[in-house]
Design a protein that fits this description.
The structure is a single chain. This protein has 504 residues and is α/β, with parallel strands linked by helices. It has 18 helices and 14 strands. Strand 2 and strand 3 form a beta hairpin. The two termini are 42 Å apart.
């Protein structure tokens, strides 16, 4: 992956001043070691009227896997080939942004000891990134860069020019043109490249907020897309995003009042702030699941449909859970879970407690047998109704943990959400949402067929008319095998049906 920065000049202000600003001599080819490969800086052209600096990053995909997302220490998904064969060596991403910050650190800070007058001077610049992942397409690229004064060209790269019927890729060829201080241009790229890729390669810790605000100083607080930029840059970590947005708003108000942020941020006495804040429903749901798992004495737990690993992280905080396995069909979700859980930094003893597996709950999986408990938290509503019997067999008939905890939205409660239009579901990916009666009917049928007993409870504030926002079913395996003869026959029938569906 690489990018180029081109400056044009005049006899009295030569373009080769770019070398002073970047602290890299135009006559030399230089290489810098990074954690994931080697960064090279070369100048394809260096003349008074035009000077181009190129940053080329050679990514070692094996080092990338071993340091962050490999099997074992990284606990990465079970798609071993995809860990090595992907777009990371070629497409601009957070890897390139980190290299930019490392190789051009003085230029990012606007420092030039040899020519201190240069950093404050706006230059005619042209920035080119040949392959940039753009989750949001060319329109988002323009929405991010045009408010900063850039003329933007974002041409979509086809999947294969010889096969136009394959359509376009998610990559664009980016060209930015405009007059700007070099430090500002580099800071724009440092923040917005990973925002467009939307998949950071490293764990996003609280210090990332400071990095964002430092690089975004002077432009981010007034950007019309600051919420999207902040959320993506911080890997959608809600607490960090809120903190950053609050500080950005404070900076904006301070600039408007020609004051320091500290002068404005003094209206609240933290010691006297005793207002109770409502507990988010997601937190209540997680607490209810953990309470059910503690009550049943489970120590080896499956989180089926683990997503980004919030429940897995909560389970790892309690020593009673000696083995935690997260399963999801999405490789990207599992990679995000590995990053959020900081699996590459855990001690060996902790690493041995957790695994992340790629798998579909519509099919039986021998890896899931023998566990004390399984959790399907907000999962079943994402499954197409015709595939629910296959899911039920895979969990209750094949894996057969002693305890199964299932949570799902209560459709009756939707009328209590003021922002949810009538007749709509809570999430666009929900295939359905059950009423309490519908959920109880499905759970009772699954329990009866596979030899479980089931109990129900609500999660969240209990409305006397429509119930709680979330409904929870606790399945407990009956004594012995727990599966009557009829259920064994049904299970064989389910197995044949699943196989026939797969063949079809």
């Amino acid at each position: 992956m690489f990018l180029t920065v081109t400056a044009t000049g005049t006899p009295d202000r030569p373009a080769t001043d770019l070398g002073f600003l970047l602290h890299k001599h135009p006559d030399k080819a230089q290489a810098f070691a990074t954690s994931y490969g080697t960064a090279h800086v070369v100048y394809p052209e260096a003349a008074p009227e035009r000077c181009t600096a190129a940053l080329l990053l050679e990514v070692d995909p094996v080092a990338l896997v071993r340091r962050g997302k490999g099997r074992g220490r990284g606990g990465a998904p079970d798609s071993a080939l995809a860990q090595y064969v992907n777009d990371r060596p070629y497409a601009a991403s957070s890897l390139l942004a980190v290299a930019l910050g490392t190789v051009f650190s003085s230029a990012l800070k606007g420092q030039c000891a040899a020519r201190p007058e240069l950093p404050g001077r706006a230059l005619p610049l042209r920035v080119e990134v040949p392959a940039l992942p753009a989750r949001g397409g060319p329109d988002l690229v323009r929405r991010l860069f045009e408010p900063l004064g850039w003329a933007v060209a974002a041409d979509v790269v086809p999947l294969d020019e010889e096969f136009p019927e394959w359509g376009d890729s998610r990559y664009v060829r980016l060209v930015l043109a405009g007059e700007a201080r070099l430090a500002d241009a580099l800071r724009h790229l440092y923040v917005l490249l990973p925002v467009l890729d939307d998949a950071k390669h490293y764990w996003v810790a609280p210090d990332e907020v400071d990095k964002l605000l430092r690089s975004g100083e002077g432009w981010l607080e007034g950007h019309p897309e600051r919420k999207l930029i902040t959320s993506r840059y911080l890997a959608r970590r809600g607490g960090l995003t809120r903190d950053a947005l609050e500080r950005l708003e404070l900076a904006r108000l301070a600039e408007a009042d020609d004051a320091e942020p500290e002068e404005l941020d003094n209206a609240v006495d933290e010691a006297a702030d005793t207002e109770e804040r409502p507990v988010p429903l997601a937190v209540r749901r997680r607490e209810a699941v953990l309470a059910a798992l503690r009550a049943c004495g489970a120590s080896r737990v499956l989180d089926l449909g683990c997503g980004q690993g919030q429940l897995v992280g909560a389970l790892l905080k309690e020593p009673r859970f000696t083995e935690v396995v997260g399963v999801d069909v999405s490789v990207r979700a599992l990679s995000e879970a590995a990053r959020r859980l900081r699996l590459d930094r855990l001690p060996e003893r902790q690493t041995a407690r957790v695994k992340l597996l790629q798998g579909s709950l519509a099919y039986t999986d021998a890896r899931l047998k023998g566990y004390d408990a399984a959790v399907l938290s907000e999962v079943v509503e994402h499954v197409d109704p015709p595939r629910l019997p296959a899911l039920a067999y895979a969990v209750f008939g094949a894996a057969r943990p002693r305890t199964v905890v299932v949570t799902t939205p209560n459709a009756e409660y939707n009328v209590r959400w003021p922002s949810l239009p009538a007749g709509h579901v809570r999430h666009p990916d929900h295939r359905f949402e059950w009423t309490r009666e519908e959920f109880r009917a499905w759970a009772a049928e699954a329990a009866g067929r596979y030899g479980y007993e089931v109990a129900f409870q609500g999660v969240g504030p209990d409305d006397p008319e429509v119930g709680a926002p979330t409904q929870l079913a606790l399945f407990t395996l009956s004594g012995g095998d727990g599966r009557p003869d009829g259920a064994r026959t049904d299970a064989r029938s389910d197995r044949r049906t699943t196989a026939q569906e797969a063949a079809a």
